[in-house]
Amino acid sequence: MAVDWADTSAEHVIRVVMVSQTNLNDQLGELDGVELSGSSVEWGYYTDLRCGGKLRVRGEGWKRGTFLRIYHDMPDYGFSETLGTYIVANDNGSEENGTWVYELELKSTLQMFVEDKLKRPWVIAKGASVIDCLKQVIGGSGAHSMRKTLASLEGSTDTKVEVDTSLSEEKQANTAQIMKAGQGRLECMFALCSMSNNRLDVNEWGNPTIAKRRNLASTEAKYRIDLADARGVVVDGSLKRTTDWLSIPDTVVVEHTYTKEGEGGNSSSEQVELYGEAHVAASDSHAVANRGYSIVHFESLQNLNPKTSQRANEEAQRSLKLQTTELVEWELETTYLPLRAGDVVELVVHSGPTEYRGVRKCFVKDAEVELQHMTMKLTLKETASGDKGDD
């Protein structure tokens, strides 16, 4: 039976199970003493750990050191899902009427790679297999639950790292790079994914996932949230909109400094500074003549080839397109929806300035679920805003 997400009378059941810290498939029993008041889980598209949460537990039910997996069931619809698998980052507690109450901080299993640092420098050659490098990063770590079955990261039902099979042309590092001694393994994993146009994530079972970066603007929407729907899921008065249109620059200037070697054996070298410049169209609302003042975005270029003024102007023009794309985000509170960071939705807005009305295609930037009442706080970023930086 399909779930009616607007059904506010449906029962939600939260179960928390302890999981072995050395084998994520080994569940050790349900956690007693969970208090849903003050407990929540969250996801973030731009956060390094991708997900986390907090769990309030009364008594000594938690077996110290175990990981926790949270399940969400809706018996009325026969629906069940796993919200996530987490490391317990701290177990701060206080005594209340003779019983200890713990505020467990939950972090994704990617936390296992944050403080686990490289003991020696590691050179990644251009053209190296990103998947093989990821095997080395994980296999050399202390994350026992991740590195037991690394013989194959593809085609195995027991794999600990999921790899999207559409990545066959994306699996080689496009540049050489040196990972320094003392660098965290998670940082290395992000670098490898960046070199190969992949995105690192973690699934609900606590396993890392590697997948080709999606074009969110062309991704089909998973859900439509209509603010005027009589059976809608949005809490009245919770909608907020933020934009950066007042701070959008009208001018971009780029600068590149390099050393020019003199001609002949006795000629000295000199420092050369190249500048490029680009402006919005005179008809643009951000143009100086229309706004009444100028906002200049300035950036330094590390590399420029060829080293000419024309090339610098081209780089300025390229940057101008990024810097003048308006960033639009929406915040709202809803009843529970099966949405995670990166999911694409359509938000239908009927009021406010005409520039922001209509169907707004967005992706979930941040989501938080309050586990007692199963309400969600969502931050949606419009896909037309683009990405001024990722991961």
Estimate percent helicity: 10-25%
CATH homologous superfamily title of the largest domain: Baseplate protein-like domains
Using the CA coordinates, give the radius of gyration: 25 Å
Q: From the 3D structure, determine the CATH topology of the largest domain.
A: Phage tail protein beta-alpha-beta fold
**Any guess at the CATH architecture of the largest domain?**
3-Layer(bab) Sandwich
CATH classification class of the largest domain:
Alpha Beta
Mean pLDDT: 89
Explain this structure.
The chain is mainly β and 391 residues long. The chain folds into four domains: 13-110, Thrombin, subunit H; 114-212, 3-Layer(bab) Sandwich (Phage tail protein beta-alpha-beta fold), CATH 3.55.50.10; 216-244 and 326-385, Roll (Phage tail proteins - horseshoe like beta roll fold); 248-323, no CATH class. It contains four helices and 21 strands. The longest helix is centred in the C-terminal third of the chain and has 15 residues, at 309-323.
